[in-house]
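User: Quick sanity check before I run a bigger batch. Here is a single chain. Can you write out its predicted 3D structure?
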Amino acid sequence: MNVTPVSFDLMVERNILGQAMLNATAAMASLTDPETVLRTVCDVLAEASPHIRLVWTRFCDHPAGSRLPNYLAGTGVGSFEQLGISARTLPSVEDAFHRWEAVSVDHQDPSGGLCREGFCSAISMPVGHKGVFPCAIVTITADMQGYFEQVGTSLFKAFIHLANVTLDRILTLQELNHLATHDQLTGIMNRRGVQEFLEKEIARCRRWGKKFSVVLFDLDRFKLINDRLGHQEGDIVLQKVAELTNKQVRQEDCLGRWGGEEFICVVTETPRKDALLLAERMRLNMKTNPVATVSGAITVTASFGVASFPEDADSLDKLLSIADTALNDAKMDGRDRTVSAADVRHDIFNIGNMLDVALRENRIVAAYQPIMDLRSGTVIAEEALARLLTPGGEIMAAGRFVPAASQLQLMHQVDLAMIMQVFSHCVTGLRTGSNRLIHFVNVSTDLLRHRDLIDKMLEAAYLNCQTCADLIGEVKPIVIEITEHELLTDISAARDLLRPFMDFGFRLALDDFGSGYSSYQYLVDLPISFIKIDGFLTRRIAEKKVRAIIQGIQDTADQLGITTVAEFVENAETETILKDIGVNWAQGYYYGKPVIPSETGHPGNEEQCLLNQDMVSRPTAR
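Assistant: Done. Predicted structure follows.
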């Protein structure tokens, strides 16, 4: 097919290419996939001008592989395939790849096949960073010789620059998401990543009437391994368990580290009986494959709990609670065994009854953990964390009873009990001069939806603040702390629910900051005074990428006048890096464990705490 050249007006051509550039900018703003970015560049350019016959891209992840394009766009696609054009046919492609710069050529034989089909000139340009996927060569062909020389290459290079900026943005988000959703030690998903997978899976199963199962397992007596052999050997055990288990999981399933020595496997399209068989295979495989360490081979056993949706539960919280109950039953029955939801003793209701009685008997108490001002080196604030006192005087961590409280819709009562105690604690400290700190306290959306309780709480706050009117101003020393997970997707509704606290003079803290893409939206739309940098970032602060992320958070906070608080600070090295970055405050075991004050009549610290590991591993400890 002979192609008749289209009339050419240089100014018109440049204008339409400029407009195409604007269209591409808008189209790429929301893209999240690298290949789609490159295809969009091809499509927009191919549609921009009748002189552009063909735009194609060749990915460079395998330079020695096929020289054929991965994607083509334009009116010349049919001719391209008919002629069998490849990278060898268009030397600009090979030159651009080897030199990694834009290369344009005119095909000198006007009577040759290329020119007859409208491929009279071409320009090839690299996209991305050479050798780092996704990188590619984008080639544009025109129906006249000298086209790229006359129009100029700057507009086409601008398209590539836009693609590079978009790819860098996507890769940065992907890296941040990988950091947020994967466990550094084992390489498998972390709790947050599994939680996101679970939420998508349960939505899919509800939509299509499908089923899935959860296998929760915990390494038996793992604390003894750490205590006797050291944490380095313990880490080797965790890595080997993850490796062994991952080999038994299908690609469509999800294996993650749920916290500490606890793991979880989400098995798609699988009823309970089949998940139970998988759990048994995992248990036996682990038991019969000792882990080689410096100290010798260690035989590792685990206890498993299995539950299925919708067979055992119709909600995610209930499903996880039942699987956890089955796991606890396996441990109480002697460890190294598997228990299904059909066999559980429904401890959730036992804990619920215990919690209900504790609420009535005022045995939900606050343990306070100090928050340090990194500049002055003094304690400036404290966070109130919920603890349940058993009739025997033992302390139960929030991770043991908060799931039951949430499932049984008792969380608002726990929050109210905590806030009332914080008010009293604050007044006592101010009047005696023993404690003039800022007090952080967690609040759930369950409480925010009970307007009658909010009114009751604010009335109590008003009465308490009257007694300290000479010691405080309009801004009260109380900070309401809420996680991104707890906030509603409707920002306007969240703002309305939180307004009574703000109007009274309380301030707002956003917990687990950096754990999701919505965090920055809340900074824009809500009156945030404090952001608590997520512990998964603090724990990995030695990594260059993580430090860059925290620095970005700090820079944003500085510009917005927001105070930053780093969570889970456990050593001097972490503190030093945080100071260098400019983080304002810090919290963690390095400064002190949560302590129940003597004024409650039940003083104690976390050394007495039941299931203390729950507090450490939960993403939001109350």
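The CA atoms of residues 490 and 496 lie 10 Å apart.

User: Great, the batch can go ahead then.
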